[in-house]
Every structure is written in structure tokens, then in C-alpha cells.
Amino acid sequence: MKILITGGGGFIGSVLLIGLHDKYEIISLDRDQGPRQTKLQALTKDKITFVNGDIRDEVLLDNLMQKGIDVVIHFAGGGGNNACMKDPALAVTSYVHGTHLLLKKSLKYNIKRFIFSSSQAAYSTFKAREMPLTEDMELMPDDLYGALKAVAEHEIRDSQLKFTTLRFANVYGYVQGFNEIRKGGAIENFIKAAYDGSDITIFGKGEQKIDYVNVNDVLHCIEIILNDLSAGSDIFNIGSGKLVSIMDIAKTAAEIGREVFGHQINIKTVPAPEGKIWPDRLISIDKANRLLKWKPLVSLSDGIKQIMTNAEAPEK
Predict the structure, then answer these.
(1) Nearest to 266 by CA among 283, 275, 253
(2) DSSP labels for 261-307?
(3) pLDDT score at 78
């Protein structure tokens, strides 16, 4: 099977390349060049074809699809909401026009399945909604990132292609061979504080709850999908199936940090800036469990410990 992975140099894309390189023939398409790609080439033993380019380049897509692609795994885009707001033009053209072109070429070259990386933000971010969020609920995005994911979802659903759309909760985890502490959400910020030996800072009382899923569980889900391309088109939530409070995440990070780094780590609370606290969002994973026979296997504490155990000082 030949697979085109867009956004192969990103966080989840890197995990897919490393995890799938010895099982499939893979082409990775990504805008970014540099040392990360060189490292991925070494980690995947030069078994992957790396292409530096943009999903909005129609000629490039034609050239790639002509190589006999069977499956497209689409992870490219403009990043999360902060990145989207920083460069809205790039976000819109990447998530909407880029996805449109990928679908157009996938239809032209008879791709067997189109796997799309969506987000729980397509349901909403700031609205308080009935929990858990299920795949049949109305999409009510209220930030740019969620809106762009929802638009892309609609076009994929209305295409003639066989597709699998995955609405991810907050994804975290360790990328084999990349021991840097990533910039990201609460988990990454707490791990960085623990590494530095500084206080872990949380907003308010830390009562806000988040659904986190480990990146290796995401890889496992995609492997299941690739093993059965005959399945019908569908949409699945991929999360942990439970909420964990910011305070509990901080306590877990502090405890594991003391064990791994050997120094005392304190938790400090500060007033939350306006708009920093939003409603809890729990996505149901019952459908993925029932139809894909998938369930998350990596516990939050194990996932945090794996990152900390492999952590290296960020470059100066």
C-alpha cells in the first residue's frame, strides 16, 4: 500500500512516519524543511520519500498522485487556533482550499480512502454543551480553527470518496527520537516547568477539565483503519473517554517530576485572564470502541512520565 501523509513533519505526522515506515510505502508532504526532516529520514532509515511542498500546489499534487497513491492521510494545515488567528489567510487557504485540492486529486486518481484529522473544536470551544459530545451532534464551532475544520469536514463528507474523519481531543505525547519538550497546552507547560525546577502555574482553582489522548493511541487508531480499507465512510471521536482537571494534571506532573528530575516542584495558582477558562469538553469514544474496536491504552501518568524520562533541555 502506498500512502501520502500531508503534514508529515508535524507532531502527529512525525509519529505516523516513525510508526508506519516499515509497514507501508510512504510519501511525506510538508512545507517545512531543515533539521527535523533530516532526523526523520534517519529515524525511518530512508524508507520514506520526503517532499517539501504545499498542499495548495495543484501541479505538485498531480505529480504525487500519479505515483499510485492508495490512501491519503491529511494532517496538514495552519496549526491550532492561535496559529490560525496569527495568519488567517494561510489558515483558510490551507484548511479549505488545500483540502479541496486534495479531494479533487484523490477523486481523479481513485484513492481508496481519505483519512482526515479533525478536532473536537468543530463541536465548539466556548459554548457550554451537553456532554459527552457525540458524532451525531450538530457542529457549532466558535473559533476560527474549529470553523475551518468543520468546513473541511463538510466538503469531505459531500465528496464521492471513501473517508474516515477523526475528531481528536487534545493530543499530547512523546515522539520517538525527538526528546525536546514541545510547546503546547497544559501538559507541555507543566512538564517544562518541572524540568526547569520552577513552579507549575495554573489559572484559577484548576477546576477546568480537559480530555487528553496520547499520540501513540492516535497512531494505533490509524493503524486499525489502514488494516480495513473496505469499511464504509464514517466519523469518529478519538479521545481518552474521560476528563481530568488542570489541578490533577499539575499534581501528576509535579509528582512524576520530583521522581524523574529529583527536585521539589510547587504548584502556584494565579487569577485567570479573561477568556482563559472555557467549558469542559468531553467527547464520547463509544463509537470508535464499538466499530473500530479501538480504545486508548496509554494512561495520562504513563504518558507524562515517558515525556519527562526522555526530556532534554531546549536549545538556547
Answers:
(1) 253
(2) H-S---EEEEPPPTT-------B--HHIIIII-----S-HHHHHHHH
(3) 73
Query: Which residues, listed in sequence order, are joined to residue 29 by a DSSP beta bridge?
Result: 6, 51
Using one digit for the tens of pLDDT, what is the confidence trace for 38-73?
999 999 998 999 999 999 999 999 999 999 999 999
pLDDT > 60? residue 91: yes
pLDDT, residue 313, reads: 52
Q: Do 167 and 284 form a contact (C-beta atoms < 8 A)? A: no
163 and 52 assigned to the same domain: yes
**pLDDT tens per residue, range 130-144:** 999 999 999 999 999
CA 74 to chain centre: 11
Quick one: CA dihedral 267, 192, 85, 104, positive or negative? negative
- Same structural domain, 72 and 99: yes
Furthest CA-CA distance within the chain: 59
Domain count along the chain:
2
Residue ranges making up the domain that contains 79? 2-172+213-239+283-297
Cβ atoms 43, 62 nearer than 8 A: no
The type of residue at 79 is: G
pLDDT given for residue 259 in this prediction: 95
What's the chain's average pLDDT? 94
Distance CA 279, CA 86 (A): 24
Q: Using pLDDT thresholds of 50, 70 and 90, give the confidence band for residue 35.
A: confident
Q: Nearest 10 degrees: CA dihedral of 282, 287, 290, 292?
A: -100
* Residues near 156 by beta carbon (within 8 Å), at least 6 away in sequence: 99, 103, 114, 116, 163, 165
Query: Is 218 in the same domain as 253?
Result: no
